Amino acid sequence: MIHQTIPLPVHYAGKLKTNGQPPTLTTYLLQNDTAPARPLVIVCPGGGYDHHSAREAEAVAIRFNALGFQAAVLTYSLAPMEFPAAACDLAEAVCYARAHADEWHVDAQSIIACGFSAGGHLCATLGCYWNSDLFAPYLPHKAADIKPDALILCYPVITADEIYCHPSSIRLVLGSTARFSRDDVSIERHVTGDFPPTFLWHTLADQSVPAENSLRLAEALRRASVPFAYHLFTHGKHGLALATPETSAPDGSTVEPECAVWVDLFKTWWERRGK
Question: What is the separation, in whole angstroms, between the first and last Cα of the chain?
Fold first, then answer.
């Protein structure tokens, strides 16, 4: 396995406020040159744009390795910051991975962004805005270079609607900037047919980020004719990660067998895409 932590460029330095911690990409790359180039999953842990959840990082990458995917974990900008600093970090990660596809034994047209909670909002932001003018002032890349080929959104923060939003995530992702509004980070309001194919899952029991977040996105994807799969489980609190003992909270409350199938469901969906 190629396991290394790579500092990513920060082209927006001096243009956007950040907490000063540069983004990094930690790789979990399988070495088997006789196999076809593999899809790559870039894992974006949750943490409310305040921290990176360790339970939604390395163990998730290794689980994708077990299913035949290359993987990497992104540490992106956290508060205090200005929008779209974190999204720029993910765009940079996608671009970097695509540029190193041959070296990493990765299919350059199969780069998948996987986000949990606020990390899901991050992935959805890039999926929504990759070919817009949002990144032009901050990144030197072409739109095609930063486009994720698919998204995996796990109990994602999506909406800035005051009834269903996760208030602190919305507040922290925007920061102190006056250039962008709550509407700009309410992803379901800006979905077009260019949004990447998306695999979504959530639970009805989630009391931190209500399921209405992913339901609204699913409705928007449906209206825009974007291919997607949506799984809404009955049980399970927020922050399940893999929902297995490997990613359990100390009290065991995030072990939920009903939801632990989500990774296998994604693999099946991925393999049948376009069929």
Answer: 32
84 preceded by cis ω (within 30°)? yes
Instruction: Report yes or no: 268 and 236 within 8 Å, Cβ to Cβ.
Output: no
Q: Write the DSSP assignment of 201-227 as a string of letters.
A: EEETT-SSS-THHHHHHHHHHHHTT--
Q: Which residues pair with 120 in a beta bridge?
A: none
Q: Which helix (H) or strand (E) holds 152?
A: strand 150-154
Identity of the amino acid at 26: T
pLDDT tens by residue, 60-84: 999 999 999 999 999 999 999 999 9
Evaluate whether 266 touches 273 at the Cβ level (below 8 Å): no
Q: What is the pLDDT of residues 202-258, one digit of tens each?
A: 999 999 999 999 999 999 999 999 999 999 999 999 999 999 999 999 999 999 999
What phi and psi, each to the nearest 5 degrees, are found at residue 10? -125, 80
Calpha distance 257→242 (Å, rounded): 10
CB–CB of 235/205 below 8 Å? yes
Per-residue b/e over 136-150, b at no fewer than 16 CB within 10 Å?
A: eebbebebebbbbbb
Contact residues for 56 (Cβ-Cβ < 8 A; gap 6+): 43, 45, 46, 47, 116, 117, 119, 154, 239, 241, 247
Global pTM?
A: 0.97
CA atoms within 13 A on the CB side of 224: 21
Q: What angle do CA 185, 191, 194 make, to 5 degrees?
A: 125
